[in-house]
């Protein structure tokens, strides 16, 4: 078996992995970024919405090359679609601002890592990790069909929702059914939509999740749905929900499907442990997806940057104690927010359409300057205090 040696091995060349490789390489480390697919950014398994606000923090400059459309804001629709909350891009959070071309975006991020000096292997999945004396010390990689041994002082796992590296390393990121949202998305053309807004529909049309429409240009959009796994009874049910939604909306019904993608996202709190001796988890592998929105690109990029920087500090002492700084930064930024959003997600999933219509009626009538769970609950509390009783611990 051929053997290779690196300071840092990053597994997965999505946004989190590319950012980790970029910033680790910037610290003068010898970095290898591996990707199981033959092409970065393909297939796209994402609604492709992001905001601009966080990009400066990770040194990303917006480019028309990988931005399909620029959004003015977002519209959220009640189950009966009579109430609509309109949010500016600044209010709407990390998933609204731009609709990406993920294929080009992911390649761009990988190119930034390469420019900093990282090596990259495509069509090279990790098939096992190397663990000695309680430390992760690399991985067995199938490089173009040939098994090779990659030794590394630090492994950064960025292998997404299905992360096997975390499990191999003994880190518990196992999900319950209620914390998995099953998704299907159509790329549709010949549809009539308001092209400067992203659109979200909640209620029984998507139990435990929502329907989204993210414009991709003139008369085109990503039209998708996420449904909580514990709300499903049979295979194909998610597609049925989406097809029925489209059938009920003439402006979508007349469209045609150009592409179908499927996948899943986690909607759980931040795990207790995302580091161990020789290994750090970033992005979706670390379960850093927002439990309400299901968005994770920004969180993946930010956590990837931090992991790369901490790798530079801990290269001579790649212990879980040294990696504690990374874990604490992640928890300080997301642990409390994601726990609160997880509680809200659980409560919302239990509400019927009539109750959601009331909630949305109040929110749409209030002038909420900053959209947040707290602001929404306080607005509803004024008119329907009985609806807020179960949420009071979140205020």
Task: Provide an overview of this structure.
With 395 residues, the chain is of the alpha/beta class. The protein has 3 domains: 2-46 and 103-175 and 269-339, FAD/NAD(P)-binding domain; 70-100 and 177-266, D-Amino Acid Oxidase, Chain A, domain 2, CATH 3.30.9.10; 351-394, no CATH class. Helices cover 31% and strands 28% of the residues. It is built from 11 helices and 18 strands. It has helices spanning 15-26, 89-92, 102-115, 165-169, 237-247, 250-253, 297-314, 324-349, 353-365, 373-383, 385-388; strands spanning 2-11, 31-34, 49-50, 67-70, 73-77, 84-88, 98-100, 119-121, 126-132, 135-143, 146-157, 180-189, 197-201, 210-217, 220-228, 256-266, 275-276, 279-281. Strands 1, 2, 8, 9, 10, 11, 17 and 18 form an 8-stranded mixed β-sheet that branches. Helix 1 packs parallel to helix 3 and helix 7 (297-314) packs antiparallel against helix 8 (324-349). The longest helix has 26 residues, at 324-349.
What's this, in brief?
With 395 residues, this protein is an alpha/beta fold.
Order of helices and strands: EHEEEEEHEHEEEEHEEEEHHEEEHHHHH
Strand segment tally:
18
- What's the CATH class of the largest domain, please? Alpha Beta
Number of domains: 3
CATH superfamily placement of the largest domain: FAD/NAD(P)-binding domain
| Low-pLDDT windows of residues | none
Number of distinct helices: 11
* Annotated CATH topology of the largest domain: FAD/NAD(P)-binding domain
- Beta-strand content estimate: 25-35%
Q: Would you identify the CATH architecture of the largest domain? A: 3-Layer(bba) Sandwich
State the major sheet: 8 strands, mixed
The shape is: globular
- Relative helix content: 25-40%
Q: What structural class results from the helix and strand content?
A: alpha/beta
Mean pLDDT: 92
Distance between the termini: 57 Å
The radius of gyration computed from the alpha-carbon positions, rounded to a whole number of angstroms, is 21 Å
